[in-house]
Fold each of these.
Amino acid sequence: MLAAGLLAKRAVERGLSVPAHVKTSLSPGSRAVTHYLADAGLLTSLETLGFHVAGYGCMTCNGGSGPLNEGVGEAVDRGDLTVAAVLSGNRNFASRVHSQVRAGYLASPALVVALALVGDVRTDLESQPLGVDRDGRPVHLRDLWPHAGELRELEERYVTPEVFAPDHTPQPAWEAITAPHSEVYAWDETSTYIRPPAYVDSEGGLPVLRGARALVAVGDHVSTDHISPVGAVPAASPAGEYLRERGVRDFNSYGSRRGNHEVMARGTFSNPRLRNLLVGDGDSGGTTLHLPSGERLPVYDAARRYTGDGTPLIVLAGRGYGMGSSRDWAAKGPWLLGVRAVLAEDFERIHRANLCAMGILPLLLPAGRSWSGLGLTGREEFDIDLSLVRESGEAHVMADAIGFTVRADVRSAGEWDVLLAGGTLPFLLRTMGAPQEGTA
């Protein structure tokens, strides 16, 4: 961060500026960073280039740094452009920073500032200039790059233990918040941020998967960012409509509303870069095919229609399903939509465990075979015989006239207990509420 501040300071001194199409923001990990940048005289230079503090922690990498600059979003849609984000966090999945930004690149804070000055990620920073100074001379990255010695001197002087000491100064905004005194949480029925979670009341047991339908059918390497709601809540979406009906005008982000399962369910599988092969081989934009009617609908709307008809749901997937960062809503969301099993070639290890923890059965397709390689289109009706799956680890599938055997990717007796209870919370509540030995 000090290197970014120094590079910004030198860029400002040379008269460089950030092009108008580039959106900039600064989201440090803590207020301590803001303090030592200010103390070192570097924060002003960052702000001059547009790097104002937008928040702390998971801001930019969670889609919380706000809209694109005026006119940019319209130009992206009009030209169907692929534009890029450059961030020094660790979340560069498609559309994570912003739903209209397809590409994402990770870089050090100093390189983020440098690329912002150029405004083009295709620039060779070793040979091409970042811009021209007030005298019309080219300014290269090497001209602005700080030396290790000066960074060490700044660190020793300004990054001190005192900077990280807790600040106990009362914050008026926090002090003004009132809360009831109770041993249990008092649910507010009008809240659009926190709702009693529906998945606590799961009945558990193995699902009956007769006449099941694929809610989505996807290929390889679908990440948790494709599955889980992330970023700003779009106005033109089932989640946006839900909030608008309740008088909400500031939709905020899925991350801020993750305590409301009604919002999160509506945003599941809504990543605009998700490729649901039921509706073609391009980006499906969070839509799917309601197979009985042939209608193309938002995934949430299709799931509700299936649920109303009593149709169980599955997901068809390829290799590496659930890769990327661990996100619990990548398992919670599908469960809320009615998904009770995922048939994939293999699973990312943490996501596989999360599926079990939500009561969703992870099923492995025959070794070396994809669902399309088995002759499936995803439009079949699936009968999955789970009667002996815990004992044998296998289940037989009939998809119209195509039959094959899948294997349950459940790896311990404990995982089976949680899965059959309907998930972790139902399992814990039943365990805690069960009478102990020797008691009534």
Amino acid sequence: MTESPVSSEELAWLDATAQADLVRRGLLTPRELVEAAIERIERLNGTLNAVITPLYEKALADAEASGLPHGPFRGVPMLLKDALCQTAGDPYYGGMRALRDRGWRAHEDSTLAARFRSAGFVFCGRTNLPELATSVTTEPLAHGATRNPWALDRSPGGSSGGSAAAVAAGMVPVAHGNDMAGSIRMPASACGVVGLKPTRARSSLGPQYGEYWGGVTHEHVLTRSVRDTAAVLDVTAGAAVGDPYAAAPPTRPYREEVGVDPGALRIGFRSVPPGGTDLAHKECVAAVEHVARLLDGLGHHVEPTPAAALDAPELFQALPTLFSALLAWELEQWSQRLGEQLEPADLEPMNGALAEAGRSVTAAQWLSGIQAWQKWARGVAGLWETEVDVLLTPTLPSPPPRLGELAPDAKAPMDLVADVAGSIAFTLPFNVTGQPAVSLPLYRTSDGIPIGVQLVAAYGREDVLIRLASQLERAAPWSGVHPPFSA
């Protein structure tokens, strides 16, 4: 090919669906797409520090291989968050210095990675995250801070901060993320991209896990378009053999929901963090009010709602017991895999303190905490039976912090725990209920910092969210707005 049908700059901002279409029509080869992505990563990553493990040689080989699958995203370059979505033979650290220093490598593809491969995606590297994905900022001691391409002194959020920064900056059109308490939605908000947390068990966590972190973990991607978010869900959704449970399948492909009229929905909105009494930051309140007016103009029935069930105390009462026990478990499982005992001192200060506390949590306390969360979730889920079709909230209670403010060594461990808990107030509830929730980039502060809003639907109703998000994307397009530091 002597001349590309699109310029290098145009290619950087095409979504995955459009890039795949260029390959399908023979206008670009998979290798050309991958080479262009590698050039962008190399040019931007020295400043952003979004990619911690380049996989360039493998990516180029995969792009040229005769066996590259003819899936819907054939040849499209992709990045994987360095958590859960393991790829056979590749380095895997989970943000941990202990794994980095020992050069740990994954032994097999996760089910999700295998499905990405079958769809035709080409993995160009692995992205940065906080240690064990436990923070709301991506500043691990193992790899250093990832910078937000909208403001280099700001956090890109966490824990999928490297993936969100990479997509926002135009390195790749789509990157994997996972969400245990907001870790897809929060960086999507901070970096101005689309971040859907699907319904619990929509995608498999196999073959290693049936569920992860007490059922709050959800896997998906960060993208720049609603149609990419929907189409990727089509290729990854569904139970794998041996999964303990599965979400009910959709009635038709999610991609077919894009552009469908959602009808007049009952949309409630709330800007007080669950369990709190004061409004979120004024910019986050302004974002919700802006989108509420937009939705009202689109014909929906929009009104404030107290959503009082969210304020029941069990959510945050059980959090310290459960998350500390989970940190202790993480330490134990990695000790077993490495064949040597890791101690809390091998972790960052906050995680180490939680792991130490978690060692004294009894099985009875763990089960009591899970039961409390499940009872709380039943009360919250009832809101969608009687009051709303969709709930609108801020994604984050405040704009993304400046780098260093929530760094692992910025303050005493328990003070940092309190800050993290406050930051996940709007997102954690729907990891516990398992409902689908999406952050959309529909607002920016006066100095240009993205502020995402969260839309939450009933359990299993990603179709409702995709229709509504697509309607908002058409009404208030964001695709033409790019961060100052980008491709």
Amino acid sequence: MQQLENHACFGGQQQVWQHPSSSLHCDMRFGVYLPPQALAGQRCPVLYWLSGLTCTEQNFITKAGAQHSAAQHGFILVAPDTSPRGTDVADDAAYDLGQGAGFYLNATQAPWAAHYRMEDYVVQELPALIEAHFPASTHRAISGHSMGGHGALTLALKYPGRYASVSAFAPIVAPSQVPWGEKAFTAYLGTDRSAWQAHDSVALIAQERSERLPLLIDQGLADDFLAAQLRPELLEAACQAAGHPLTLRRHAGYDHSYYFIASFIGDHLAHHAQALGA
């Protein structure tokens, strides 16, 4: 691994690292915030943050203001990039497919399958790296925004016991039913819609599960993508039907931006701290 950045921040350190990924077959970057407790030698729980379309590891670490709460609770924050990167990695001219739009799944279709294995990267490879190289415990939480909210919800639902808690901001809750998801899933997974269900929160909620992690979701009502792409009412109905615990908070006047995330990120870290005992 190679350290690219290191900044003092709320008594801790905000770092950016680069490493060769065995899952994605390219170099990947991630941000890691080490709170004062970690610098003092304490093994700390880890919150994984998954960002949305067009983002890199930089968006969350520079715009969300999460380091202050992480320092208070003793969290390590890990923010990976949103897709594989490189000149030999398949891409698309549109913002909602290809590099910057990995959708946190393992692609099965050419040309994407060669590199686009973000599910393996986030669930397996990155935690193994973090727990081997940083003062991290094996207690994990996961959160994200938009496409990353989709990723956080689906990965928490698919891997019971892997995460102690989950939350999301303005997530794509039913990608099988909205344009962003239909486009990406067709490209990455093919036209068989039955294969899409394993990556759709609404479909996953309906399945019988041994674990029912409470979901915390914040949604701005001035979000330009609310009606066409996000559709939180679909998840709300699915949770009601399945008896799955959901806290869905709707906020008048808030849009899809990091101003919205920064306004409520403290609530989310408190939610995760309670679950993790931090």
Amino acid sequence: MKETHPSILGRRAFGGLAAGVGLALALSACGGGSDPLGSAPATSGSGSGSALVIGSADFPESQIIAEVYAGALNAAGVTASTKPNIGSREVYFKAVQDGSVDVIPDYSGNLLLHVDKEAAEVSAEDIFKALPAKLPEGLAVLEASKAEDKDAMVVTKATAEKYQLKSIEDLAKVCSELVVGAPATFAERAYGLPGLKKNYSCEPKKLEPFSDGGGPITVKALLEDQVQVADIYTTTPAIADNDLVVLEDPKNNFIAQQVLPLYNKAKMTDKAKEALNSVSKILTTEDLINLNRAVSGSQKQNPKDAAAAWLKDKGLVK
């Protein structure tokens, strides 16, 4: 997720977004026939100025970050509520444009590709620099966090040791001997098999398709050596929990995907910007992994509670 990446949708862009933080979490609180842009659940706080509505895509990580944003805003005296499970980027981007949602957490690389399908930027810095000029009038982004969630080529520690793998460049030397586990779309998307071939001359023995978006089925297949390499998202707790190895990507086959707020300028105040930037200043990939684990692991916290605990731990809420 490098060339021009005309079709990178990945989970984060999804018509896409394989419903879930690479955990294949059917954790979405999406109500079946409900209107995703209907009335917002109240997470209101006290304060002056126009109330802000913080939306989320329909997967747990986005819901968690939306609750983090709302909690930080309320703590800063900016009244905010959340409107979760809006849908894919195609849906929630329009919601921010029409003002039914004021702010939504997004991922820098795929946001850029949404507004410019021919974008060639791959680094975090270049993507962030390119975004403002590409966004439609009335929309903008705030500071990008260090937190990222993107596709990665992942192997077991045993496989890494057997083949001396640290990067996808190393993988290329033995690629023809190994089976890759990934969504079926990995065969066609620019960062998938075409990207591995173009950037690394890596052509695997076979692609084993899985429909769980890098979730438990994919992880199980990797651990049981049904596949030797898997496309798993970087904030998936299973990576650390199973001592898996994320291969380095020196040629940026998978472009940067920093978490950042996308917002409509109409109601955004300096006070609100400051509160959201305070989140971006401290949010890390490790935080996302732990938040995802809290919501989807044995704790089964709801996103609002997980967000509240994180905000308190980081000193953003008293």
